[in-house]
Amino acid sequence: MTDVADLRARSRRILRFAALYLAQTWCYEVLLPRVGLARVAARSRSARLQHIAQRFHVLAVDLGGLMIKVGQFMSSRLDVLPPEITKELEGLQDEVPPVPFPAIQAVAEAELGVTLERAFSYIDPSPLAAASLGQVHRARLSELDAAETGLLDVVVKIQRPGISEIVEVDLGALRRVARWLSHVRLVSDRVDMPALVEEFAFTSLEEIDYLHEAASAERFEQNFADDPRVSVPELVWERTTRRVLTLQDVTAIKINDVDGLRAAGIDPSEVAEDFAAVMFDQLFVNGFFHADPHPGNIFVTPLAAGVPGADHGRAWKFTFIDFGMMGDVPDVLRRGLVNLLIAAASRDGKGMVDGIREVGVLLPSADTAELERAMTKLFARFGGMGFAELQDVDPREFRAFAIEFGDVVRSLPFQLPENFLLIVRAMSLTSGMCSSLDPAFNIWNSIEPYSAQLIRAEGGNVVQATAKQVASVAAIIARLPQRLDSLTTRFDDGTVSVQTPRIERRLVIIERTARQIVSAILFAALLIGGILLRAEDVVLGTVLVAVSALPLLHALFAGLSARRGPLL
After folding, report:
1. What is the DSSP letter of 240?
2. Alpha carbon of residue 562 to chain centroid
3. pLDDT band at 185, cuts 50/70/90?
């Protein structure tokens, strides 16, 4: 049991940290702009954000417990946090020392109701792995348990002492900070902070419930019961409680151990291809996926002759462990993602916003029209391009797109739901893992079959939507004669007046403005084209740069002549 005074001091330290940097942020982002010093705030913004992230990193490592999880969670929230913060925190790991074995032993014995000497014939006092919420020890089952389960070597995952109280205190402090932020319009217009904290709380409470993790492992195993590519360690339910989890020891070749794979006669590029296929099966077929597929959580297990899986011609299989962070792809989210994919391909800004609405990310304060324009601008760059074509795009183009998209996301009042972020996290880790196994690996080649399946699966829905649109248009056409008749009657009665001089003047202004825009576009195209061509063809490049002056002059003088004339 953690000391009450220590817990209160922990809560005060978290709140002091939050109050200090919230006050600092308010001074720079609200007060200084109001007194005409917005440029001062803007110049120091990047350095200030980085400093805050660095100080939080130190705080998280010092306090341990849930605060490290907070940092890891924040590093993934690219939708609501600036890159200065996410970049600094993305490397945050469980940088905490292991708990002395006597303290861990006390937790395990209190949970199991028996001494460790009786529960296991052997347990290694040195942890195999230590984390902020618990640590893992190798062990060997007693003769009786080994006879009943058919297992001998196991690993025992035991929670750190007092972690439940620490999590409760940390969540209480975070909820309080969220309430503070909910009263700051600058934040509340963009982010529903209380909902964000509750989302994090739900995930964290699930992660410290080992019975929930055990149930997730069983569900994952059932999804791949007939798949020789995947296996899951067997559970020892007799030695599993909410704070102690006992599993079969399945230690094998780490998936990123390229030398180890080759030494076992396993082709790393084949591993990359199969791993991508397995992960996308989880995402788009099973709808239940491992959200933390880092190298420590996936082994490649060689198969001996006669072992299940070897009969299917396979020489190895994937063994997944650590099911504390799992994700679901609910039907609503899936439909929204498919609609986003279809809308992006057709460059349909409204369709993309509708897909985002289905995903459930729009906040009440969202300006839908602005969002449509922003999404259309971003996705039109790659709309209509197949995955094979995307491979030929300059990587700098992708980076520019990612930066621009991130800026728009952070500037608009919406946030991505946890399930979607877990999907992005899983896909990101999958892509990075496969690329480390095979430098020539391309994630687009792996995802293409699944995206095609999704579009085909939505074929029926698309037909239905089209039918609804046709019916809507037909209804409008059916009512059109009646409306025209009504309008004709109003003309005859003299109740409709038309101000043609004003309309004509407005049309002239619009036409003149359109010509200016066309001239400006021509100027930019000729100038940029000339500059780029001069590296290869000096003469042609110089001619284009010179010719670009003509549309520039037209745009400028057309604007001056327009200002001399009447506007109304």
Report:
1. -
2. 49
3. confident
Tokens of 269: 């590029």
| CA dist., res. 389 & res. 254, Å (int) | 33
Instruction: Evaluate whether 85 touches 57 at the Cβ level (below 8 Å).
Output: no
Three-class DSSP category at 320: strand
pLDDT tens, residue by residue, 48-98: 888 888 899 889 888 888 888 888 777 765 555 677 777 777 666 556 788
How far apart are the C-alpha atoms of 497 and 84, rounded to whole Å? 59
CB of 276 closer than 8 Å to CB of 430 = yes
Q: How far apart are CA 128 and CA 99, in angstroms?
A: 12
Do you know the residue count of the chain? 568
Phi, psi of 540 (to 5 degrees): -65, -40
**Whole-number Cα distances in Å, 52 to 65, 184, 506:** 20, 19, 52
Q: What is the pLDDT of residues 423-465, one digit of tens each?
A: 877 887 888 788 889 888 876 666 656 666 656 665 545 444 4
Give φ, ψ of 156 to 5 degrees.
-120, 120
Longest dimension (CA), the chain: 102
pTM of this structure: 0.67
Nearest Cα to Cα of residue 237 among 256, 217, 251: 217
Q: For residue 29, what is the DSSP state?
A: I
